[in-house]
Design brief:
Blueprint: H1 2-31, H2 35-47, H3 52-59, H4 63-75, E1 79-83, E2 91-95, H5 97-105, H6 110-118, H7 123-139
Antiparallel strand pairs: 1-2
Helix pairs in contact: 2-3, 2-4, 3-4
Length: 161
């Protein structure tokens, strides 16, 4: 019986990993972007005009990570970075027309689907899921691995396409 539960648990983990991989592949095929790049582009669009530090705080990404992602988005012509007229130390980010078109072409992100469904669960169930996942992280010796709140595999600031 214990072996069946262990195997069922491993299958569940594998399904989650495969869903993550498939979601990333679907996004890459449609846009050439990684989930983290799309999230940064979406956050810039939502803000209208924003700074890299504001994007980093909103997404709970590191400042350096956002800078690297914005570099890649800028190279691809999806976002621009301009020096702030009032504070020359600050850069303001904008989405280009190509970036807006990319956002419209992008399929739903796995984490958006998760967030929408997770947030309607009762708080006790949310806490139970969180506790189980944190314990699973301990079992896999993954508690010291830095991770952003993003369903994706690989480096968060990897190159486009």
């Amino acid at each position: 019986m214990e072996r069946q539960i262990t195997n069922a648990t491993l299958r569940a983990i594998r399904r989650i990993l495969r869903a993550t991989d498939q979601g990333g592949r679907k996004l890459a095929a449609a846009t050439g972007l990684t989930p983290s790049q799309l999230m940064v582009l979406q956050q810039i669009e939502r803000s209208g005009e924003t700074t890299p530090s504001t994007v980093a705080a909103a997404l709970q990404f590191g400042q350096a990570t956002v800078t690297n992602i914005v570099d890649r988005l800028e190279e691809a012509g999806l976002a621009t970075r301009q020096r702030n007229e009032r504070d020359k130390r600050q850069f303001l980010l904008h989405v280009t027309e190509s970036g807006r078109a990319m956002l419209e072409a992008a399929p739903d992100l796995l984490q958006e689907r998760f967030r929408d469904r997770f947030e309607v669960l009762p708080s006790w169930e949310q806490a139970m899921i969180l506790a189980a996942l944190e314990r699973l992280g301990e079992l896999l010796d993954a508690t010291d691995i830095d991770a952003a709140p993003l369903i994706d595999t690989g480096a968060i600031d990897r190159s486009l396409g």
